[in-house]
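ESCALATION

Customer reports they have been waiting on this structure for their group meeting. Please prioritize. Original submission:
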Amino acid sequence: MNIGLREAKLNFELKNNIGQEGKNSEVFIAHDKQFDADIVIKRIPKKDFASPNDYYREAKCLYASKHQNIVSVNYSCEDKDNIYIAMPHYSQGSLESIIRTRFLSVREILKYSIDFLSGLNHIHTKGLIHFDIKPTNILVSNSNEALVTDFGLAKFTNSQRIAEQNLFYDLHTAPECLVTNQFTIQVDIYQAGLTLYRLCNGSNVFKNQLTGIQNKKQLDQLILSGKFPNKDFFLPHIPQKLRTIIKKALELDPGNRYNNLIEMLNDLAKVNENLDWVFTPLKNEHQWSLNKDNKNYEIALINNNGSFSITAHKTMLDSGRRTRESNNFKNNLQLKIAETELKKILKSY
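Update from on-call: job pushed to the front of the queue and completed.
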């Protein structure tokens, strides 16, 4: 019996193109006729590869990086023009798709961050640098775990733990990527910091800071000077400990960032303030709310034709009785919000 090389037929029907931020490929929801189930298919043109030897490099990286916080690969195949990578389909989509629809609580930010950083740390132990960490490349599984995906730019490091790369998503370019082509895991740590920054401040935070930037050269200058993103801008309920972690990950000098993700994970585990406040932006009013001890606390920032006011209320959940809190709401609600900081928010969202 000849048990040598065999070519097998795979059938899947491409359905919706679900896009990808800064994409260098196309990603689809597809129906796999063998599984009779929806999957995700990443389609990469063969012309984009330097050599046929690279066709299955990304699939191999995924397969070699098995971990509960790394997206698994079902299979990989090809046709005349393209390489296809098949992965599980998760209905919640990516972290980017979630933060486009709502803001995360600090508890959610910490949970998802610890998840994906655990997966990212795992690939670092395998000698890989991801080079493309961003909210679109972190999926949320059906069991609500954050999973790292898209290893299209991933590279193995050499004996000095250095890898070369010349492709980056513009908005997640680490400063050192603009001056050299030899990198360490500090690039991933910087991109992880940017990802946390976006989880804290919402989907539009970059777009709002890009006003007036006309080309990539201007953007690069802002990155090199440390002015993009604005590291002093955070929604008021984001705890100081979490802000400090993000700022350290975003240090201009890689030597001043975390040495590894274990250090960053340890610091994230110590964040214990404002965990369950929920931020909701409305047309002329933004709200922060918290359910605690049978009470709902609510802070509202209201814009009346350019005149700002701040109100604070407490509602008893069992009786529905609603009372106005005193002006000293920072102590009453145990939330460190500065009025001047709040008034900046309506101009940003």
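Sent to customer with the following note: DSSP finds ten helices and 16 strands in the chain.
Escalation resolved.
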